[in-house]
Write a structure and sequence with these properties.
The chain has about 180 residues and is an alpha+beta fold. It is about 15% helix and about 40% strand. The chain binds flavin mononucleotide.
Length: about 180
């Protein structure tokens, strides 16, 4: 097969089921991405598509379905918070994955001191972000957030997700784990 062949012929996409099965085999944590809308009403969604992007500047990424109701509020507000859920937070994950109009009535939360974005209580960690960029990718929008503040709860184990179900870390996993150094 020549290089030219590779460059000019577009290959067809994998079937959706295979794509879903492959991607679901990557274990992740669970975040709840929060913001406030133009009226100051808190909005948020459960989002497992989350990663670190850059150290300088400190950037993180959440991939959000472009049809998400929370996305419009995030884009308008230009700020959001990422709440990394603990193993106690399965119910919280399901609440924020639902279409419930009163998601924030079902959880304890505070107003972020730096951005004013909603921070859920009892999480493993949270990051307060300014929206650095939003990139449409297929049917999702990649939110790049510049982290302006954050904190961790050292005594918590994370909620994990694998093959479309919540999962527990292996026995022996330590809740209090040394944090990586800055170097
Ligand atoms: C475990 C789990 C992970 C999810 N991850 C994502 C994700 O990465 N991106 C996304 O857009 N939706 C994700 N969802 C779905 C949204 O949470 C769901 O569509 C939610 O209702 C959107 O709320 P909104 O329309 O109020 O913004 C996930 C749901 C669950 C249960």
């Amino acid at each position: 097969m020549s290089t030219q062949h590779l460059m000019t012929d577009e290959l067809s996409s994998v079937d959706l089921q295979t794509f879903r099965q492959v991607m679901a085999s990557f274990a992740s944590g669970i975040t709840v991405v929060t913001t406030t809308d133009a009226e100051g009403v808190p909005r948020g969604l459960t989002c497992s598509a989350f990663c670190s992007v850059s150290v300088d500047p400190p950037l993180l990424l959440n991939s959000v379905a472009s049809r998400s109701g929370s996305l419009k509020a995030i884009l308008e507000r230009g700020r959001f918070a990422v709440n990394i859920l603990s193993s106690d937070d399965e119910k919280t994950s399901n609440v924020f994955a639902s279409g419930a109009p009163d998601k924030f009535d079902q959880v304890a939360w505070d107003t972020g001191p730096t951005t004013g974005m909603p921070l859920l209580r009892g999480t493993v960690a949270h990051a307060e972000c300014e929206l650095d960029n939003a990139v449409v990718a297929g049917d999702h929008t990649l939110l790049l957030g510049r982290v302006v503040a954050g904190a961790t709860g050292l005594d918590k184990l994370p909620l994990t997700y694998w093959r479309s179900d919540y999962a527990k870390l292996a026995p022996g996993a330590r809740a209090v784990h040394p944090m990586p150094s800055a170097a």
